[in-house]
Amino acid sequence: MAATADVRISVNGEAHEDSVEPRLLLVHYLRDTLGLTGTHVGCDSTNCGACTVHLNGEAVKSCTVLAVQADGAEVKTIEGMAAAEDKLHPLQEAFWNKHGLQCGYCTPGMIMAAADLLERNPNPTEDEVRHGLEGNLCRCTGYHNIVRAVLEAANAPSSETVDASSPPNPEARHEIAKGVGA
Ligand code: FES
Ligand code: FES
């Protein structure tokens, strides 16, 4: 039987204690152990950014971090972005408004990377947004609407959350809150 290590990790404000194989990647811990499938796997090799989460407040690609390296840390995933189950984070709302997604596979990682960018630079220029998201790949949108969405969110009140159940399409809005294409 493979050796295991005990980890204590806070995810979206909830404490978790688990025994994990030392080789287990953080992204697989989040998806397979905790069932938080909003964090996606696009490449497993640090290229695409689909697996981006916040580790102690900073965006990281969770396919490059071992779960044991996150022992004692605070992790936030796309599921933890909105203030409540029926709300959207302003970035989620802006991606919705500006059509910043098509298949949605890259979207959770884009939003986590964009949130980190706006935390460090609340009023970025278009060039700064493009530079800040260069580690996140999208095969669908051509990036223009993603950049527009981040710029719109930069101008939204930081404490604002939006009702995710409001018309016209509550089911689709719920998907963007949880990470589309899981
Ligand atoms: Fe982590 Fe692509 S799955 S960077
Ligand atoms: Fe499809 Fe970005 S919306 S990969």
Protein topology:
Elements: E1 5-11, E2 14-20, H1 26-33, E3 52-55, E4 58-61, E5 74-76, E6 87-88, H2 90-97, H3 107-120, H4 126-132, H5 144-154, E7 162-163, H6 170-178
Parallel strand pairs: 1-5
Antiparallel strand pairs: 1-2, 3-4, 3-5, 6-7
Bound molecules: FE2/S2 (inorganic) cluster (FES) (2 copies).
Q: How many structural domains can be distinguished in the coordinates?
A: 2
Estimate the mean pLDDT confidence: 91
Strand order of the biggest β-sheet? 2-1-5-3-4
Order of helices and strands: EEHEEEEHHHHEH
Q: Which homologous superfamily in CATH is the superfamily of the largest domain?
A: [2Fe-2S]-binding domain
Spatial extent as radius of gyration: 16 Å
CATH architecture heading of the largest domain: Orthogonal Bundle
User: What proportion strand?
Assistant: 15-25%
Ligand kinds: FE2/S2 (inorganic) cluster
Query: Which geometry do the CA atoms define?
Result: globular
Low-confidence parts lasting 5 or more residues at pLDDT below 50? none
Structural class: alpha+beta
Q: What is the terminal separation in angstroms?
A: 31 Å
Largest sheet: 5 strands, mixed
Number of helices: 6
Q: Class of the largest domain in CATH?
A: Mainly Alpha
